């Protein structure tokens, strides 16, 4: 490929990307304001009424000056007519302003709330891999800061751009009815403003994008820093985290400074140019009046209208940086709204019952942006009600298998079947309502213990709650708490120990009476006594149910129907606990190494 051809293809690619961004912005704006066009139209009508004094006052003022300068040419009734019209349009400003803002605010506030709701809904339907690649702090910045910037942009459009647009139209129409010579002078100001905007647009958009991306990066780092405080404090790394944040804040400050300087130069340039134009307009109209080509009063009219044109254009130019930020925020949230990385499976077949048969057929899996398979040609058939345990070194593919069972990930090739149905055909919502997952990293929210246990269940009896508590060995813990089940556990359950948090997660699984159970090292944070009690309870939980277990402690899986030994994404051994020990292979070596560690 020649150099010129390469440059041409690169330009075409950039052009296509820009066209895609523009198309996405337009679609986003359409989605945002759909259903609110009538409110905005009514608001516009009341805007015309409330803003009418600004357009009528120069005409009345010119008429009165001409009346005073040439009293012989006018009757007294003309004076009272002008004064009456001006008084009426001024008084009506009060109700029309209130109605204008009322309809506008209803539309914009509804868009703001709907947009945040839509973003949250979209985030709930995006794939787990999408969430894994985008830091939670960045998502928060999009939902909070970007939506706020869009709201500001909407208000600026309605309160700044729209009045400016109408001021220019009215001024040119009225002036054109009186003098085409003056109108031609007015029309020169418009292309000048377009040139100024065009000159600064690219640099402003670039500065806004850099600043927005840096703020998102900072937001993500702040969220991560807050979560890491216990670890940071435990290892005496406060200065390291402070320096990391200081470096990031330095970059934010630098990008913000460049944006401010660009906006300042932009605003000053248009002010100087328009002030010079205003001086020229005054000189031009006075000269026409001196020659007798226009009445003296019209000098005030034209000067006032030209001032309105300049102020309107200047106002739009001054708020253009805010509009640019708003459009950049629209682009930012469109990354979520139009993301195509939805849930891995979109099947429609609802499962009324789940017997629990699972098949892995020639499954290969690799994570995005990786060339290494985590699973390679993995085959496994699990019978209904069977308990399968997975063991192996870190990175062997154990947790990946559980993620494939829950439908969080789709195999790169091969397929997974549930009750002889390919997961592509199964409704994930109906499937997941029939399973219980206890992850290694317990996920709790800042509510009460009762709310965390019954999360997502509309109707739960007190008997079911108490039964789940007993089975999860939580009774003694709850009795010691001041508010019992209603005790607030803080964000992520930070007021509880790791073992207590894990038992709440296990109680959450018990109360759902699942038909399939997935345990990802669910007892890793428990002491030996609690672990024994939980193991006894789990026997009741998994009785007759298909169960997948990833175990760290080999002693916890002695009763598993089959143990699958994973190594480098492959199943290297499979059998009961006793069979694998007798084989003296990988599992036996793991068992001996584990016992050696405990004895030392």
- Summing up helix and strand content along with how strands pair, one would put the structural category as alpha/beta
Shape: elongated
Quaternary form? single chain
CATH architecture of the largest domain: Up-down Bundle
Regions with pLDDT < 50 over 5+ consecutive residues? 1-19
Mean pLDDT: 78
CATH superfamily of the largest domain: ABC transporter type 1, transmembrane domain
Q: Note the gap between the termini.
A: 65 Å
Q: Tally the beta strands.
A: 10
**Helix/strand order, N-terminal first:** HHHHHHHHHHEEEHEEHEHHHHEHEEEHH
Family: Belongs to the ABC transporter superfamily.
Keywords: ATP-binding, Membrane, Nucleotide-binding, Transmembrane, Transmembrane helix
Subcellular location: Cell membrane
Domain ABC transmembrane type-1: 56-325
Map the helices and strands.
Blueprint: H1 3-33, H2 37-69, H3 76-91, H4 93-125, H5 128-133, H6 136-178, H7 180-227, H8 229-234, H9 238-290, H10 296-337, E1 358-365, E2 375-382, E3 387-392, H11 398-405, E4 413-418, E5 421-422, H12 428-432, E6 435-438, H13 449-453, H14 462-471, H15 475-480, H16 498-510, E7 516-520, H17 528-542, E8 546-550, E9 562-567, E10 570-575, H18 577-583, H19 586-599
Parallel strand pairs: 3-8, 3-9, 6-7, 7-8
Antiparallel strand pairs: 1-2, 1-4, 4-5, 9-10
Helix pairs in contact: 1-10, 2-3, 2-4, 2-6, 2-10, 4-6, 6-7, 6-10, 7-9, 7-10, 9-10, 14-16, 18-19
Transmembrane segments: 37-57, 77-94, 158-176, 182-200, 265-290
Keywords: ATP-binding, Membrane, Nucleotide-binding, Transmembrane, Transmembrane helix
Family: Belongs to the ABC transporter superfamily.
């Amino acid at each position: 490929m020649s150099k010129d051809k390469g440059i041409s293809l690169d330009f075409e690619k950039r052009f296509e990307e820009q066209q895609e961004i523009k198309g996405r912005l337009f679609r986003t704006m359409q989605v945002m304001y759909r259903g609110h066009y009538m409110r905005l139209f009514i608001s516009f009508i009341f805007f015309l009424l409330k803003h009418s004094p600004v357009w009528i006052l120069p005409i009345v003022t010119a008429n009165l000056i001409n009346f005073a300068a040439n009293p012989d040419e006018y009757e007294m009734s003309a004076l009272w007519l002008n004064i009456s019209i001006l008084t009426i349009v001024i008084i009506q400003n009060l109700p029309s302003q209130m109605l204008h803002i009322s309809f506008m605010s209803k539309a914009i506030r509804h868009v703001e709330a709907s947009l945040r709701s839509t973003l949250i809904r979209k985030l709930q339907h995006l794939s787990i891999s999408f969430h894994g690649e985008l830091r939670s702090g960045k998502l928060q910045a999009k939902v909070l800061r970007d939506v706020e910037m869009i709201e500001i942009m909407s208000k600026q459009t309605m309160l700044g751009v729209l009045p400016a647009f109408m001021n220019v139209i009215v001024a040119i129409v009225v002036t054109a009815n009186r003098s085409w010579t003056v109108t031609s002078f007015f029309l020169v100001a418009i292309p000048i403003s377009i040139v100024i905007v065009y000159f600064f647009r690219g640099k402003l958009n670039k500065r806004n994008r850099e600043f927005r991306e840096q703020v998102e990066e900072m937001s993500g780092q702040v969220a991560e820093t807050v979560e890491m405080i216990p670890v940071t404090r435990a290892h005496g790394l406060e200065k390291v985290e402070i320096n990391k944040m200081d470096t990031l804040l330095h970059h934010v400050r630098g990008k913000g400074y460049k944006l401010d300087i660009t906006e300042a130069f932009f605003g000053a340039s248009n002010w100087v140019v328009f002030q010079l134009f205003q001086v020229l307009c005054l000189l031009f109209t006075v000269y026409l009046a001196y020659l007798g080509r226009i009445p003296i009063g019209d000098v005030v009219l034209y000067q006032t209208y030209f001032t309105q044109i300049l102020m309107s254009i200047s106002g739009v130019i001054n708020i253009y940086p805010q509009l640019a930020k708003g459009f950049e925020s629209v682009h930012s949230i469109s990354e979520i709204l139009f993301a195509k990385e939805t849930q891995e499976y979109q099947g429609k077949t609802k499962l009324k019952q789940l017997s629990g048969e699972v098949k892995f057929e020639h499954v290969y899996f690799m994570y995005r942006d990786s060339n290494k398979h985590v699973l390679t040609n993995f085959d496994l058939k699990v019978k209904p009600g069977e308990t399968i345990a997975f063991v192996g070194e870190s990175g062997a593919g154990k947790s990946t298998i559980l993620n494939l069972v829950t439908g969080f990930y789709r195999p790169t090739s091969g397929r997974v079947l549930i009750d002889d149905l390919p997961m592509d055909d199964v409704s994930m919502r109906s499937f997941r309502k029939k399973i219980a997952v206890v992850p290694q990293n317990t996920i709790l929210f800042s509510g009460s213990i009762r709310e965390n246990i019954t999360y997502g269940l509309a109707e739960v009896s007190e008997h079911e709650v108490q039964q789940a508590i007993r089975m999860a060995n939580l009774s003694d813990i709850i009795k010691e708490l001041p508010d019992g089940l209603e005790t607030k556990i803080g964000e992520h359950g930070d007021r509880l120990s790791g073992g207590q948090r894990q038992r709440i997660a296990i109680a959450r699984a018990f109360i759902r009476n699942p038909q399939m159970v997935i345990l990802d090292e669910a007892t890793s944070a428990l002491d030996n006594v609690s672990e024994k009690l939980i193991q006894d309870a789990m026997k009741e939980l998994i009785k007759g149910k298909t169960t997948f277990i990833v175990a760290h402690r080999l002693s916890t899986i002695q009763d598993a129907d089959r143990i699958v030994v994973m190594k480098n994404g492959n199943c290297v051994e499979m059998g009961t606990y006793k069979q694998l020990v007798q084989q003296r292979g990988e599992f036996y070596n793991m068992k001996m190494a584990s016992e050696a560690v405990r004895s030392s």
